[in-house]
Amino acid sequence: MISVKHVFKTFGSGAAATTALDDVSLEVARGEIFGVIGQSGAGKSTLIRAINLLERPNSGTVTVDGEELTRLSPDQLRLARRKIGMVFQHFNLLAGRTAQGNVELGLEIAGVGGAERRRRSLEILDLVGLADKAGAYPAELSGGQKQRVGIARALAGNPRILLSDEATSALDPETTRSILDLVKTINVQLGLTVLLITHEMDVVKRVCDSAAMLENGRILEQGSIVSLISTPGSRLAHELFPLGEIAPHPGNTVIEITFSGGSADRPVIAQLARSYGLDVSILGAAVETIGGNQAGRTRLELPGTPLFNAAPINDLRGQGLLVEIVGDGAVVQGAHA
């Protein structure tokens, strides 16, 4: 649904030029929720604005629903943008318009008649749970309600894609959860493809089907959450299940076992200790429900060296578990599933 290929974007020129996007390529499948995660300054907002060409790339292509936006004329681009709704971090509502008036704005600009504007705006406000707030002004709404109006406004024109630029970062945790649940609901009910920008890993855990990690304008990794969890050395997977610092005893082996789906229910540690007579120490564990499935990572300390523990480690890998040998806080090269 969204295809970004070899996009570069710089600001300024000469020695003062800053590269915001550095050869970025990503693919978002039709109907999925795709998260782009990164810290401030990573290039996330530039990327999302490049997708609807609010920022035109210096080079590379952006294709949305089979149409290459980077080749369109200004008039053609205005029409193509009607397929794309956008939700902003700070709501961007017009203070002098009611909730209904804010939702109608895009339809009004598009030339939709008054009766149809009113029908559609009330329909969408009902969808986002604000049917009773149609006549309220932004100053009379909570932060979560303002964001629901922003989402309703983005949906009013029946877009195929919803872009969300840090839409929950100004909200408290409980409101954030309710907004993310709403995004998931409209993703399912309307068949929308959603691309959301965030710096919060909890957002990715709660609603995303796939994700990409952006750092210094470059994509470090991307893929479905399920595949990333099963990828040795995945930074995104490690940040989904943080376990803190490693403090092994000298001469012992520290391993991390990543599990998902059915493997989450197996008594892996008990079987390991029983089968090999090992005194296994649990150094940490993190478990989450992602995409409706339980997944997580457990850090264990085994007595003896990695060579001494080769048999139990290979046994775990033979069960289809991702096992990584770790030390000094870094994954040892060569660890594999």
TrEMBL record:
GO terms for molecular function: ATP binding; ATP hydrolysis activity. The keyword Transport applies. One of its GO terms (cellular component) is plasma membrane. Gene3D superfamilies: 3.30.70.260, P-loop containing nucleotide triphosphate hydrolases. Belongs to the ABC transporter superfamily. Part of the ABC transporter FtsEX involved in cellular division. Has ATPase activity. Homodimer. Forms a membrane-associated complex with FtsX. This is ATP-binding cassette domain-containing protein. It comes from Cryobacterium luteum. The lineage of its organism: Bacteria, Bacillati, Actinomycetota, Actinomycetes, Micrococcales.
